[in-house]
Structure formats: C-alpha cells, structure tokens
C-alpha cells in the first residue's frame, strides 16, 4: 500500500530545512538533514473543515483516538489495533489545585490506557502505518512504555503481526515480562542503550521492519497529539491557560502542541495554551538547551523517572520549538520532589502515577512558586504512565505500614499513639 | 443520614430465612442467621420501569457506573468518588474464540478500572454508603484488590475520608505500596488472614467504622453487578449464552447474576445467560459444595491466583444460588492452565490479566472440552484484574528473552536459528 493517498495529509515537512516530502509510511527523516531532519505532518485544514465539525464528533460514540480520524495521518480503512486507546478520564481536582496554589486544575490519567501509558497513542498509529507500508513486523529499542505499548497493540491484531523489541540487558525483568506476555520477540543486548539502539536501527534497515523509534518516525507524534485534543474536547473546547507535560525525548510535548495547533486551524478552539515542559534534574538536557539557547548537549541519565530519562533526546528541536511558539517555559524537578508528588497525588486523588507520570505535577508546584504560572491561571496536566509499572520506586515514596499483633488492646494503643 | 429513604429500594432480604429489613446503610447481615444471613437488595422494578428506559440511558454521556443510578442502592445526591469507575472496554475476539473452540467470544477488560480491578465497582459504592451512614472512615481486611480499590476511591474524595486497611504481615510489599500511595492507614497484623479478618471486624464494630468486607455488606454486590449490566448494554441488550467469571469469595459472580436479573425484571433484556463459575484447583471450596450439594468445607489456599484464593468464602451461598438459578455450572483450572492462559491471552489480544483475572478464560477452554459450553454458544468473560498488579507470577508464565551481543551478525544467526 506504500504511497497510497492520505485524504487530509498534504506533505511531510522537514523542521530543519523546510523541504517537503510525499507522506509515505516509511519516510522517516529528511535525507538531507539526517538525525536533525525530523519531519512534521502537514494537513489540508480547509478540506478537514469542509468535511468535519464539532457536531459530527459529538455524535460519534467511539471514545478512542480513532474518533479524531480526519486529524490522523492514516487511511480510514487500514485495520486498527483493537485495544481501546485513548478516551482516558480528565478529572477536575480542587484539592490538588489548592495544594499547588492555583485555582483550576485538571488531571488526565493516561495511565488508564490499555497497556498503562500515553505511548499507546503512538504505538497504535505505528501498527496502522506498518500495514500501510506492507510490513507486518514492527521494531523499536526501548525498555519502557514505547516497547510495552507496541507489543500490546501488535498483539491485539491477533497474531497477524509481530513486535521485535531490543532491550539493553540491564532492563528490569518486570518490564521485560510485560513484553513477553504480549508475545513480542525480545532481544536482550549485552551493551549500553546506545549500542542497543544502533543495533535496532541496523536490523530494521536490513530486515525491512517498520520503525517505531518515536523521534525518527513522524507519524507517532500524530498519535501522541490525541492527548491534548481529548483534553480540549473534554473541556468543551475551552482551552486552559497552561498544558503541562513531563519531557524525555521531546515527542510527547511536541505532539501536545500539534494537537492544539490542529484544533486552532480547523476552528475547534480559539485560544492556544502555553506549554510547560518538565524534566528531571538528573537528566535535563532539553531544559538546558531551552534556557541557554544552545544546541543540545547529551548528559548522563541520573533519575528515578526512567520514562523521561533520555540523555540524548532525539526530538528536542520539535519540543523546544513547540514550547517557544506557545510562549511557554521549562522547569526541572528533583527525584525527591517526584517521590513526594507520587504520594501527594495518590493520597488526594486516588491516581497512582509512575515517577515520570507525576513529574509534570511536581513541575506545576515549582512553576507556581517561581511565578511562571499565576495562581489565577487554569492548568491541565497529563499523568503519562501508571504507577503499577514501577512499584519499586513507589516503595521509595511511601513509608512502612504500622505493625501490630492480632490484639484489640494493642490496636487501640497504636491508634491513640497516632491520634487516630 | 442513616435510614434516609432510597427511592427504588424496597427491602433487604435474608437469603437464608427470607426475613426483610429496612435498607439502612449499616444493615450488614440478618441478625437471626449470623454469618449465613447474607442480605439481598430488593428493588421496586415497577417504579424503575416507569421512570427510566433504554433511551434515557443512551442519552446519558457518563460512561461510569453511575449511569445505572436507578439500579444502585444509593441516594442520588450523596457525593461520589471522583474516579471513573466502570465503562471498561468489551472486545470481540475471533482469534481467542477460535483458540477456545467457540464461535463468539467477548472479553471485558476490567483491569482498566482506575485502581486496576473490578473491585473498584464495589468500593465506589462503599464510599457512598459510608457517607449515608454518617461515617468517614471505611475499613476492610484484605491484601488485594478490595483494599487497593477502597484506598483509591477513598483518596479520590480528597482527604475528606480515610481508609483503614488490615493486612496480614505476609502481604507482599508491592501490594501494600499501592495502599500507602493512596494514603490509607495500613495495619500489618502479625498473624494469619483469619486473625487479621477478626481483628478488623472487632475494630470496625468498636470504633464505628464503615465495613467494606464484601460478603458482609449487601451493597457491595450491587456495585459489582454493574460489570454484567455494562456487558448487556455494550451488546445492545442481546445477552450472550454464557457469562463467565472467576470465583473466590462468591460475591462477584453473585453480583453478575443480580445485574442481569435486574435487567430482565425491568425489560432491558429478554434472555438470561447461564453462568460459568471458575475456581482454581488449589482452592475450590465453592465448586466442591456446588458439585456435591453439600455445605461448604473450608480448604487451604494453594494457588497462584491470589485474588480468588479464598479458603473460607463468605458468600458461597449467593454464588451457588445464582449459578443454579442460571442453569449454569462450575469448573476448576490448574495454576499451569492459568499461567498458560496469561500468555495466550496477552499474545493474542494485548490484554494483560492477573492470574485470577484470566482464570475465567482458562475455564472456558476446559468447559468447551468437557461439553459444558457448546461451540455454537456465545460467551462473555470478564478479566477481573490487571496483570501489572502481579508481575512476579507473570514472570513464571513467560520464558526469558533471547540474549546477544550488540552485533548484527550474531543477531542474524540468532534470528535464523529461531526461523524468524
């Protein structure tokens, strides 16, 4: 199906040199610019406006990302993974707003996606694009949510496709287990993440597998953008002042911007939000480049927030461009602030986020303290991954339970001691 | 608010002696019959039929369990936990149907509830009933999904209520962690589960806390019944021939029956399904009592499926009554069959269930082989809990990944060896 016309997509545009390319499923990077030649999907907004409006959307009972089909770079008839990706809840939390020092806060729990993270939104698109490229094997190098979401979405095709996942051998067995449950071919590489990544690239090229390495594949950001589109729809198209995301590779926040940008172009929203990107102090190369206006300098990965621990992010240009266009900002949080926020969020909302999943909320607190976000401004933040994925770090966030013998008197004493 | 009139509830009826009681929030058991005096909520179906129909329901945009309000034993105005409980996806799976030897199979992934299990449906009701009883502390003895769902739903009330959870000290730290993240007061009891349970009962009575021990509280089954009501609605009120659930305490399958029974009474469905209850061979006291027609004999708990490892189930009478009324059956599966099914399900659907969560599906396979379910019959099964809750057992289900050095030649050799 390579080269089949996409109804609403005009071109792929290189964000470095501006060169345009035909939107083929395997047109990953701008050949002229190499790794910096990240491509962006350009839509024909006029055509979309003619064919699609808010009423059509409201009448669509499908809660998944496929309800936004005119804004997705796929052929409508390509078989889709059957998992219900997207449609995650958006909660308004007065208690958390108060704790963060703002008036209005919305929390989107993307940990309730089928495999437990926002990355399902990107992997679902990868599964569709692979088929449009005539390929049934999709591959990536990852130990985390990109891998598990790819493995799960591939599995939902019912044995018609296969995921090949490259992991560095240091990857925790718990994360590898989810991949194996989904029937992925998991290749454990005795080497660093960089070595693992380059082996995957070589194999993908040589074997003709479809590439689900996010920064390289322009279509994956288009899946990720559905998180901000959903927020807009859930807020009845009244956009908040700030959209907040944790930042690793840069793809997710770039996708969030693309989502609201698209909505503005087709007239679904009037106002664009400012973006706040939050990195972990132990691995913040994008914040560094953003603040200093310099090129990106790779750094070590010293943070518990493994889903955003990307020392050499490949999509920093798109991320920085998005945040700047939005008049937004970036901020870093410490591991301790992340651990504290896991507990604060859990206790006040019943949402259990993984470390990278709550880094954004920890960033709001700091941004309010620093005067970046005003207390009168409204904020929405996405919890990007489920805490059940990383119980080990959650253990660090909480204390131990109270211990006692099975004795009512001892219990009474204990409860009195704790003023309960 | 104790004793406030519930619009559509007539009475609580003892399933042992038939005595009727006023539906007070703290009317747990029939005082005459003690532990066997499980109560059942009786509705005024005529009144419901007058006030509510399928069109009303269809027009309701709320995807959560609260869309079924006329069939829930709560006051409409009591504040509800804010987590989006229910509205989990129902997937039709041709591949799994074929593997199980049947024509039509639906899989409901209740692991996508906010805290990762079907038990959110019961805990949400407990949080509402506690408030109607004027209590802000809710307690239970559990290491598993009952506890985490209670802790999460309580937390979502934003610090207005508190969960007190009794766990035996052998409880794995991973499960305790989720409770602590949700801010529950966790009391680790140096004793057996029985000792822990009785200490919780004593404390609940003495302290005036609300009781969320499921078999004792008649309202919790009413929350659980929403899983089968949702299936019915998702199937556009065309009920399948068989509804399949794994069985531990007996409450969940009893709830499933109550759900379809209610729907039949108000004319939303015409046909009632047969129920298949599935226990684990290592802990199957209800199957034993069901098959032999004897009273229940407690047994040890020797199974990896810890969410259904209940040696002394407290709601077996309601479960057996439901299965008999449905002309259904019971069957046991081994731990190995459960582990195999975790892998088969994951690989063919992208759904990752915990051991108890997939026991039902393993039971379908066996029931088809034994001629209990005919290949022409349609089946729906609920995956009751998320596999991320129990990574340790999942590790047992899967093998190890393939290992290699970061070398393309070695990779090619390896892929050839595996005929890939």
Automatic annotation (TrEMBL), chains A, B:
UniProt KW keywords: Amino-acid biosynthesis, Lyase, Pyridoxal phosphate, Threonine biosynthesis
Name of the protein in question: Threonine synthase
Domain Tryptophan synthase beta chain-like PALP: start-end pairs: 83-385
Family of this protein: Belongs to the threonine synthase family.
EC nos: 4.2.3.1
Pfam families in UniProt: PALP (PF00291)
Pathway: Amino-acid biosynthesis; L-threonine biosynthesis; L-threonine from L-aspartate: step 5/5
Reported function: Catalyzes the gamma-elimination of phosphate from L-phosphohomoserine and the beta-addition of water to produce L-threonine.
Main EC class the enzyme belongs to: lyase
Catalytic activity: O-phospho-L-homoserine + H2O = L-threonine + phosphate
Signal peptide extent: none
Species name: Petrotoga olearia
Cofactor field: pyridoxal 5'-phosphate
